[in-house]
Amino acid sequence: MEVAKKESKMEETIPFKNLHSREYQGHKKKVHSVAWNCTGTKLASGSVDQTARVWHIEHQGHGKVKDIELKGHTDSVDQLCWDPKHADLIATASGDKTVRLWDARSGKCSQQAELSGENINITYKPDGTHIAVGNRDDELTILDVRKFKPIHRRKFSYEVNEIAWNMTGDMFFLTTGNGTVEVLAYPSLQTLDTLMAHTAGCYCIAIDPMGRYFAVGSADSLVSLWDISQMLCLRTFTKLEWPVRTISFNYTGEYIASASEDLFIDISNVQTGCSVHQIPCRAAMNSVEWNPKYNLLAYAGDDKNKYQADEGVFRIFGFESD
């Protein structure tokens, strides 16, 4: 019983009920992806309007927010990710078949790679040396960041959704339309394990920042939590009722946020599996991501205005005053 008591006290250390969301406007169409840089000071947003934007975010939320536009893609910017070692370098993946590397200070594109299909997923290896890109044709490309050239290409015979490295970079995960998580050795990309994770397609994956767990969100509306050393499912989170589109661990690994077409984002305690807070939202969510240093959660979805046009906004939850 002592443990349970301790945990319920722990949950109250973040006063979720008193925290607010702020809205950030700048895109002309809906925002597909939000991501924080490694220092937690900048947030990037990628949009259907063919641009990405970088926002300076004060964690207390004071002051006017400056943003810079990254222009050059000729199709939707579906996903983006920051260099894990460099607070000003960001990579974007677009439907225009290119992957671009940008300097967030100048807003200039420094590198560009032309790939074979419409890119929908992108992730950095934790040491910053490689980038993995997934496209609509279920092809995986690994780029060497320095040369910005592909070093591996592999086409899969099944639907590949989100991709991720573990914290040490020696394992690579693919979530698939078959309800499995494929665990590959890196850099050989040999299969280590196929986890029968869900009864429907696995859409998204998040790695716990402490390196203990990974979580998988599925079309069956469940989020499963896995022990990374034993590849065992520890528990499932059951609050959502629609296919899970996006999940993220907070920086301490204590909480997990998950979202779908339900009109709320769920925040659950990782250890107990209990939901501790729900953030109401007005539309299906595309992307949630916790800040790597503070309990600030960025989120973006299919928000529309009263004329049913895309709003092009994202929000950040976790500010103490409005």
How many strands, what sense, and barrel or not for the largest sheet? 4 strands, antiparallel
Query: Count the helices. How many?
Result: 1
Question: Number of DSSP strands?
Answer: 28
- In percent, how helical is the residue content? under 10%
> What proportion of the residues form beta strands (DSSP E)?
over 45%
**What does the overall shape look like?**
globular
Give the mean pLDDT. 93
Low-pLDDT residue spans: 1-12
* Strand-pairing-aware structural class: mainly beta
**N-to-C SSE string, H for helix and E for strand:** HEEEEEEEEEEEEEEEEEEEEEEEEEEEE
Instruction: Please give the alpha-carbon distance between the first and last residues.
Output: 38 Å
Rg computed from alpha carbons, rounded to a whole number of angstroms: 19 Å
**Order of adjacent strands in the largest pleated sheet:** 1-28-27-26
Protein name: THO complex subunit 3
InterPro entries: Tex1/THOC3, WD40/YVTN_repeat-like_dom_sf, WD40_PAC1, WD40_repeat_CS, WD40_repeat_dom_sf, WD40_rpt
WD repeats: 24-58, 70-112, 195-236
Keywords: Repeat, WD repeat
